[in-house]
Amino acid sequence: MVALPSGRGSEWGVVVRGFALIFFFGLAAHASEADALAISANIQAKHLPFGTVLDPIYASSTSNQIVGYTRCGDSALWTGAYLAAEAFRYNVTRSADALANVKAALAGLQGLVDVTGDNRLARCMVLASSPYAAGISSEEASNTVHQSPPWIWVDNTSRDEVVGAFFGLGAAFDLVDDAGVKSGISSLATLMLGFIAHHQWSPNDDISNTFLLRPEELQMLLQVQHHVNPADRIGGPLVDLPIDTAVSFDTLSISSYFKFNLDYMSFYNLIRLQDNSDNRGAYQIVRKYTASHQNAFFDIIDRSVNGSDDARDAEMQLSLDQWLERPRRDPYVDNSKTVPVCGTEACKPVPVPIRPPTDFLWQRDPFQLAGGGSGTIEGAGIDYILPYWMGRYYGVISGAVQSAAAPSDAVAPGSLASLFGTNLAVGTDQAKEQPLPTMLGGVSLSVTDSAGTVRKAPLLYVSPTQINFVVPDGTATGAAQFAVSTGSTTPTFIGTLASVDPTLFSVGGSVAAASAIMTQANDPKLQSPVTVFQCSASGCVAVPIELGVDTPIYLTLYGTGIRGRSALTNVAVTIAGVSVPVLYAGPTPNFIGLDQVNVPLVLSLRGSGLCSVVVSVDGQASNAVMIDIQ
Length: 630
Fold this sequence. Notes:
The protein contains 14 helices and 33 strands.
């Protein structure tokens, strides 16, 4: 056996010290809530010029000057999705800002009904005096533009727009405990469905666009309206098609992929409000066809319908992390020489970070190879905040206090942790050296444990939406309060302390933030570093590791929440499902809060390719990270 040092002061620690220093102070922690809050703020600032969701057009790909707006034709749909996102956020956080956004989105949808004069839903509405009105009118001319001073509004509303609006209305009614919001939803849903019921069950009085051809959508509309206004129930048509009629047709082809997004929106409210075997059977037709598509929104809808599933829920989290690597604008992308191609599409779902830009990622064909524009249109980001806040609501994504390495339900004493919120600091500051301060940027953080003991937390980083800190040693397990003091306010958050909470750091969303060394079998003291990953402007990838008989390789995984293990024998590591010996699991020398696990890459792993690594400590499994083994 190679006599590698396994603990503090090891030569192995010297090999990785430079990497760990960059990693410890320079690598951003998981920041899902901070990103969600930033996206919401940006939507309010740039994507609601007339009260409903539109996407800005910039003067150039590098300019921040807005010269127009686009995607007016789907404004009602995405305003409904935005309403749902902020409703989930409000239910999870009770944020006054989220409630204000809910009310604003609801008012926007109400405006789309009021502006038409007959309770039909407009696609969008624009102030006629706006400098953007001419461009929008030109773009939407085929849908017919009407004058309703001081507004213009776009007609020819499709079923899609109504489905999106009702998706938001149905979700918000049950998620938001505000009497005004509930009353507004009740009235609006009844007005909208009333028009449809008296106009050939069509959103624009066009029999070719009737909901009679989409029984799952029609039944969803009826169930939502009955739910939000049981005193004024609107009766359905005399004859209904079987509920699975349209979705069975949908799954004959992957073309017009947005139809599946509408299916999931419909079934979310339909099964929630009318859970029977027919509705579930129809849903399962869609789910079976799309389950392998690596779609975060579809995955979280499935969580609401079918409950927890570890593999699906992990995929959902990973897809959202990878979404953060995508450009916010729409540069042209062509992956035809990047991924394996089968005919005119990718053989497997294209990795989320490099899928072509679009308005709502989860409604686009995941096998599509090319698409985008000139980098001048900015997406709203509802495709992030909607599944994110749904993930928080359904317990797939952890809350305000979590491990700094990956989403988690608890944190451990001595571990690196992150706290997410709003107005946590007046600016941004970062600790420059160790020992870490307990006051940084005018902010301190006190942790009160289940025994009532209060301790100050060492701080690494503070910003208005995120604080990175070390959970104080000695903190008792159980529920704990985390109080942020800024001098003027002291917001308090609830978290959970566990003796261990193994989480592994990654780069690029899934690649292991790890290091490795190669030794010589005949002289273990001869050691050289092995590259495990590399990063560039296009992202981070795992670098293939070649295993040799005479050149043993040892891997170091970096994480946190591991040092509290009961014994080394109670730490297990699997790589590609293969158990490997654990040489060391504990603190990384000289870096507070950072832990490491040292393992050999056994020869039986040769040829594994891109494979997952999981660390289990006292029976608790970590998140999976990826390495590549030749």
